[in-house]
Design brief:
Blueprint (H helix, E strand, L loop, with lengths): L1 H15 L16 E5 L3 E6 L2 E7 L9 E3 L31 E5 L14 E9 L6 E11 L5 E14 L2 E11 L4 E4 L4 E6 L11 E5 L5 H5 L6 E8 L2 E9 L7 E4 L4 E5 L12 E4 L4 E14 L6 H12 L24 H17 L8 H17 L1 H12 L6 H12 L5 H15 L11 H14 L1
Helix pairs in contact: 1-4, 1-8, 4-5, 6-7, 8-9
């Protein structure tokens, strides 16, 4: 059972650390962003092309949102707002304006359907400035129909240019002086409504998740770490790839062939879950981090989604499963006695995501999944000595394949056959960050390739 699970985890880690050349990783000069401020909105341009409007107030939509989202060449990837008769389906005209964050039930108040609660703009903490990147932070008040505060939030936004398009990052934290109670609904989380031509229903679009699930049938209700809603427009392939931060709760997708995708951080909306609640205590924050890549390539090209997701993780400061310096100290033969709590939390989050993505656990059986994560984390910690010794051997030129070095180190450390665990750990570390291992000199590309080959053969 463990060996089979290790194989599945290795494959998941391997994909996330792929070194294939992605469209997102090609180097080319990017134009700057330009920001224009209006009374109730912001307009963002990349070079001369308008790429999005952010509305912090609107008379038809009771929450902030992005609309008119376009690729750098001007191809629209969100549905027209408002939808155009005989061009777009006109369902949910104000509920699905483009890209938005909303919750259908917080303390019994509906902040999704524009008929109960409102998310009111409460000012900028930092204002956007034109430049190579754009960052701005807003405050929001979640109020009920009588105007009473339910909670407040601070939301950080970032727009960055990449060769395959541009990326929107959203980092929000909700807090209150009272309990915040979230219930189970489909309409909870970060939502986006794609342009009509790239919807699955229109015949040109597809939904893909990180586990290979396709379209509504293969993705709805499934937990994962990223989803891409994309399609063909003339001779181009365009879309929006939504990515979940590793510290988020397990995220499932409320994905529809008609053009909707919602990243939902609460239990899946099934009858057996509808009495469940998520409670955030006073003084605590409920934080969510997402990114959306607005991408465009030629019709025959494709983006390397796993490499893009890995790049997103690096921007968050988490990178691969672990960083090399999480394990390597001044004395590489002596692993840290007290792991960095942030490192341990990151490890738990990423292990949980990978276990979900390969179907090893179900998110609805949280305690069982949590126990498995903790057990695997303990196994990986047991391998730290082996890993530190093996990396020292290779870095100092010992004539051995990586697995040979691990087996020798395992014998020296007398840890009882942990080399398979160390190999699993090393795969994520070596491929994601071997060249940055400052404690042991620079590892050459040939060594990285050799590690890949060794670990692949060992399974």
């Amino acid at each position: 059972m463990y060996r089979c699970l290790a194989k599945m985890m290795l494959l998941a880690l391997w994909a996330g650390n792929s070194q294939q050349l992605a469209a997102d990783d090609q180097t080319k000069e990017q134009p700057n962003f330009r920001v224009a401020s209006g009374e109730d909105s912001l307009e963002f341009k990349l070079g001369e092309q308008s790429i999005a409007n952010y509305y912090f107030r609107h008379d038809k939509v009771a929450r902030p949102f992005f609309a008119h989202v376009r690729t750098p060449s001007g191809i629209q990837v969100t549905r027209n707002f408002p939808p155009i008769e005989e061009t777009d389906p006109t369902d949910h005209p104000a509920m699905h304006p483009g890209i938005w964050l909303a919750f259908a039930n917080i303390n019994g108040v509906n902040f999704w359907h524009n008929n109960d609660g409102k998310v009111l703009y409460d000012g900028f903490e930092t204002r956007p400035q034109s430049g190579a990147e754009v960052r701005f932070t807003t405050r929001e008040r979640y109020v009920d129909a009588k105007g009473k505060d339910v909670c407040r939030s601070v939301t950080r936004h970032e727009l960055t240019a990449v060769p395959s398009g541009w990326m929107l990052s959203i980092d929000t934290a909700l807090h209150s002086g009272d309990d915040l109670v979230f219930t189970v609904k489909e309409e909870m989380g970060l939502g986006m409504r794609v342009a009509t031509p790239i919807s699955v229903k229109a015949g040109n679009g597809s939904i893909l998740n990180a586990s290979g699930g396709k379209d509504e049938q293969g993705t709805w209700g499934k937990h994962d770490r990223w989803w891409d809603y994309y399609g063909a427009v003339d001779d181009r392939q365009v879309g929006m790839m939504l990515m979940s931060g590793p510290d988020n709760p397990p995220i499932w997708s409320h994905s529809r062939d008609y053009g909707l995708l919602v990243a939902n951080p609460f239990p899946v909306d099934r009858p057996q879950n509808r009495d469940k609640q998520t409670v955030v205590k006073p003084g605590e924050a409920f934080r969510l981090r997402f990114a959306i890549l607005v991408h465009e390539t030629t019709a025959r090209a494709s983006i390397d989604r796993e490499a893009i997701y890995e790049r997103f993780l690096h921007r968050l400061g988490v990178g691969s499963l672990f960083r090399p310096d999480d394990f390597v100290t001044t004395n590489p033969l002596r692993p840290k006695k007290t792991p960095d709590p942030f490192t341990a939390d990151r490890a738990r989050s990423l292990l949980w995501v990978h276990l979900l993505s390969v179907g090893a656990v179900e998110a609805d059986t949280f305690q069982g999944g949590k126990n498995l994560v903790e057990r695997l984390l303990a196994e990986i910690r047991d391998a730290q000595q082996v890993f530190a010794r093996a990396i020292q051997k290779i870095s100092h030129g010992e004539n051995a394949t990586f697995l040979e070095a691990v087996r020798r180190a395992d014998g020296e450390a007398d840890l009882g056959g942990t080399h398979l665990k160390a190999s699993l750990l090393a795969t994520g570390l070596f491929v994601g960050g071997a060249k940055r291992n400052a404690g042991h000199g620079s590892l050459h590309e040939k060594q990285v390739v050799r590690v890949r080959s060794d670990v692949t053969r060992s399974w």
